[in-house]
Every structure is written in C-alpha cells, then in structure tokens.
Amino acid sequence: MVIKLLVYLFLAVVVIFGMARVITWLYSAGKMVPVEAAPKARVAVVFGAGLQRDGTPSVILRDRVKTAADLYFAGKVEKILMSGDNRFIYYNEPGSMREYAIGLGVPAEDIVLDFAGRRTYDTCYRARHIFGVDRPILVTQRFHLYRTVFTCNMLGEDAVGVPADQREYNLIWSLREIPASLVAVWEVWFSHPLPVLGEKEPIFPSEAQPVPSSSPTPPTGNLSGNG
Fold first, then answer.
1. How many other CB atoms are found less than 10 A from the CB of residue 99?
2. Cβ burial 67-81 (10 Å sphere, 16+ → b, else e)
3. Would you say residue 147 lies in a domain?
4. Domain count, the chain
5. What is the CATH number of the domain that holds 109?
6. Any residues with CB less than 8 A from the CB of 36 and at least 6 apart, and which?
7. How far apart are CA 210 and CA 14, in angstroms?
8. Residue 107 and residue 168: Cα distance in Å, rounded?
9. pTM (two decimals)
C-alpha cells in the first residue's frame, strides 16, 4: 500500500512539473522567430546567464549578447537592455555584457543596463515597470525562451523571442527548465512577487507611459545591488 502511494505521488509530481513546461511551450511556440524574421522593436532584452571566473560572460551569455548585437546591426532594435545580477561587488553581469557588446561594435550609448535582473521574472517585471519597455524582443536560448516569453507576456508585455542558439548546450540547462517552468506559472498566476525595484528609468523618457493601475504598485526606494 505504501509503495502504491509513493508511486502515485511520484506520478503526480511528474504530471504537475510536466504540465507547467507544456503550458509555457504551447504559449510561446508561436512567438519565437529567428533574427532575420524578427519584427522591428525599440528594445531587445538580454537575460543574464552567469560569468566565468575572470568576470567575462559565460559561453551561453556571449551567445545571447551576440544575438542581440545581430538584431541591432540588422536594424531590428534601437537599444539593448542587458539585465543581470550585480548583488556582489565583484560580480557584475550587466557590466560584463556591456563590455562584450561594445567589443562587437555596439555603441555604448545604445546599451542600457539593469543591475537587478536576478531572475527571469525580475527582468521581465523591471523591463516594463522601471524601463518602460512594453514591446520588446527577448533574447536567450530556446530552452529558456519558452519560459521567458510566457513570463514577460503574462506580466503585461507584448513580447516575442529570438533564440540565441549558436551551438549545442549541456542537457542540464534544458532539465532545469522543468522545475523553473512550474515556478514561473505559480508566480505569474498566483503569488505575484515584487522584485527589487526603485526609481523609474525609462529608456525613451519622452515617450514614457504610466503603468496601468491594474498592475501591482511598485514600492519606492533605491535600487539594491547597483554597481
């Protein structure tokens, strides 16, 4: 009897986690396009993916920045918002991304940094509420893009995704998306957490629009973790 209960419990867990991944996949599959087919948008959003020990972008992060640069040079976007973690003085994802993009030829004045994009949810939320981005192109690898497109759109953006796949990636990255997708569904549909926020920094100040009153009201205060 105990064994049966354990088997049923295991199957229930598999179904719950699997369904979350299926939900994000079904929602996002039609909102993903290659660079050449991407619509024109004001801003591309690049999601952090870790740094190497010397502080330079990881291979996965370099591919994301390179894809965003391709969008910029193709005339698809005017600005690139680079969002990542900067909680620690010697760990600066956005700054490292910026240096790599400049090395690819992207002008510094067309790069905007978000130092508090600690998670996918945070980056999506802050892109809209802090930087005034409502129709971005999201840039990350396909395994992550399903969850990213789902999350950003559920948070009120009209977003499409461009895969940054430029090589084969370790299977572990795809496997981690299974529990991460469940967290994403829970957060956008049920818990609605507030990320680290602060003063608004619209990328295009003259065009900034107020956030609809139906959205959660961001608290005021200084941005934590800014470098």
1. 16
2. bbbbbbeeebbebbb
3. yes
4. 1
5. 3.40.50.620
6. 74
7. 41
8. 29
9. 0.88
